[in-house]
Structures are given as structure tokens and as C-alpha cells.
Amino acid sequence: MDGNNDAPAPSPLRPVQNGSELPEQLALHGGRPVRRTPWPTYDKGAVFVHTEDEDAAIRAVRSHLYFRYDHRPANETECGRFEDELCRYFGTRHALAVSSGTAALALALMGAGVPPGSLVACPGFTFVATPSAIVLAGCRPFLVEVDDDLRMDLDDLRRRWRPEIRAVMVVHMRGFAADVEALSAFAAEMGVPLIEDAVPALGAELNGRKLGTFGAAGAFSTQSDKALNCGEGGFLITDDSTLFARAVALSGAYEGRLRRHFPHGEPPLTGLDLPLLSLRMDEIRAALLRAELTRLPQRLALFHRNYAHVSAALAGLSGIAVRRPVAPGAYLGEAFVFRVPGGDAGWFARALRAEGIDARNIGADDDLNVRAFWNWRFLYDSADPGEIRATLPRTARLLTETVDVPLSSNLTPEDCDDLVRAVRKVAAARETALVGS
């Protein structure tokens, strides 16, 4: 990093001879970037994995027992132990380790008995895995607008409710809790299950209660950029034994193996009337995740520390609107998300990248970001992005204004200072350009 890390971050403004100030020249325009070292992200190897985690995975490899349904009782396998530990962590009756977060979402819908062909409400701002999981479960996504803080808009859902909607899938997108308490009450009012897509929010809480425990089931991912990381994988949690049994059977517990998940009694169904989809987790991934789970509180604390550092330093900065949590602390902290009202968020993101900060404009025309609903072409008859945007105009406008910066738990306070300085520098240059135009 440039400069003395113990010194305060320099001002993004520089004095000129007449005593006024001008913005520091942007790297985008040939100036010196805030940082020259790569911004730490999972795809560059900035993952929270310790020697003990590696040892656990190697132990599983050396066991030669990679299939979760081997000769051992369930509570002696890595998958079985991981599921027991998840139940204790979340305070739920059941947990099922599977092959991905998408699989967990689809299994939750199928386990809840949502009929094929049904509409499933979900927000227009989410990762493409959410509507994909709905399709995988044989259902049809019904997209709902989001509010200014990019949360599923309950008012829009209520206004456009249709009897064909047979489930609500709420998403805690980019680690920020949705207003899941209100949505849970609404789903109960409508007589449909609420499924929580907590894939991007593993470990986050709302009012002291862990996300994923508010609905009929919660689904999580253990892909490489998640709070628990085994490259690929996921799990679902639930208190509903019938939903759980259906999900287990569908995931691939064949020839009586369903009974292993009910050690204290018979399962509520045989599973023979359900297809076997082979969505299981293997023993090597489960061993790695079990080791990582012991340090999850440490990683969550780092996420919160980094997010608090950045959000406090940039609160109230003119020209940007920092995403607000639905309640104090109701976020994971693995992303810093803000809007640039006025439509030049694409330029803002490019300027941040030139300063050495990884940033994306969610709704950029030149970036096929699959968090933007108009890039889910498999849902639409039209291939025209403009026509698709018009179906959710408010969400389209907000995503066009949105900038997303990943915050690794491996960030140092100095890294956070670099981000703060870069955002201030770009915002100051933008404001000066607007005043001068």
C-alpha cells in the first residue's frame, strides 16, 4: 500500500494557489491510484482457511470414505456430524448438507410441497441462483420490486398478489437482512410457506435471531465466497420434519438411508414416491466445513469490524446513499453497497477500480451481472433488456444506481482506509464535475 499506514488518510482535495481546493486527480485520468496491490477477494485466494481446516480435509481424504452413506452410523460420518453441529449453531431440529446453495433452495421448495407449476415470489434483486432454484423445483419465479435499500418490497408483493403464488422466497441479498419478520407474517396471512434464501448471509442475525430460522426452511451456500467455504456446497435447516424428510429423500438417501437421519424414530415417509436427484454433500467438504465452523464467530467479527469501519467513515458523504440495514447490525458485512443517485454509478465503479478497489455497478450495460434481473433471459420471451427492465421499473432504476464492493474478512484496517479514501476521492471529483457542468 502507498504511504504510511499509521498516518491519517490524506484528503481527496488538494490546495491551489488562490486558496480554493480541487479534487485530487483520479487514477482514471492519469493520477496516482490510492492503492496498487490487488483488492483481496476469494477468487484471488483471499479466503479464511486455517491449517486446522486443511488438516481436517486431508484426514477425510486419507480415510478413503468419501460417500456420506457408508458403513458407519450417521453420527460418526463427517456429514452427519456437520449437520448435528449446524443444528446446535442455529438452534434448529434438522439440517441437511447438500451439493450447493441452489440445491438447498430447490429442495426446500420441493420439501415444503409447493406444487409444480406454482408461482414463487422472489425479489428482482438477487443472484441468478434464486430464480434458477425455483425453476429447478418445477415452479415459476414471480419477481417483486425492491425498496430504496434493495430489500424485497412487501407493499409491491401485497399489491400484486395472485392466488397462483404458492410460496415466498425472501433473499438476504449481499448479506443484508430482508424485512423477514414482516414477510413471514404476510406469508402466514396468505397461507403459504416462506423460504429464506440466506445463501449470502450465513451467520448474520436480525434482532438476535439468526437469519434462516424465520421461515419454513433456510438455505445456505458454502461456495468459495461464503462465510463457510468448501469451494462448492450448501445446506438447509428446518424444524419441519416432513419437509426435512422429503428434502433428504430427494437429495439422494436411497434404499432406506432416509432412516439414518431419524435416529430416534421412524421418518414420516418412505421417499419411494419421490425422485432421487443426487444432490448430496461429500465427506471431504463436510470435514473442511466442520473445522471452519469452529472459527465462524471469529470470521463474523472481522466482517462486522470491517463493515463498521467503512460505513462509519462514509456515512453522510455527499453524492452517495449507503445501503441501510433493516435493524442495527442486521447484516453480515461481506459487501459495501451504495447508490449513486443520478445515473453515473457505472463511471463511479470504473473510477474505483482505477484506484485499486474492486467495484461493480450492478446495473451496468457493459457488465452482464447476473444479479440484475434483465440478465435472466431464461425467464422471458423477450430478449430485449429494455422491455425486461420495464417489468420492474423501480428495481431497474435502483440497480442502475448501485455500486457493490466486496469486503473480505481478510481486509486489514489499512485496506479499509484505502476503500474510504478511494470513495471520498471519486465522490469529490464527481461533485466538482457536476458543479462545473
From TrEMBL:
Signal peptide annotation: none
Record InterPro entries: DegT/StrS_aminotransferase (IPR000653), PyrdxlP-dep_Trfase (IPR015424), PyrdxlP-dep_Trfase_major (IPR015421), PyrdxlP-dep_Trfase_small (IPR015422)
SUPFAM superfamilies referenced in this protein's UniProt entry, alphabetically: PLP-dependent transferases
Alphabetical list of Gene3D superfamilies matching this protein: Aspartate Aminotransferase, domain 1 (3.90.1150.10), Type I PLP-dependent aspartate aminotransferase-like (Major domain) (3.40.640.10)
Cofactor requirements of the protein: pyridoxal 5'-phosphate
Family of this protein: Belongs to the DegT/DnrJ/EryC1 family.
Name of the protein described by the UniProt record: dTDP-4-amino-4,6-dideoxygalactose transaminase
Organism, scientific name: Micromonospora tulbaghiae
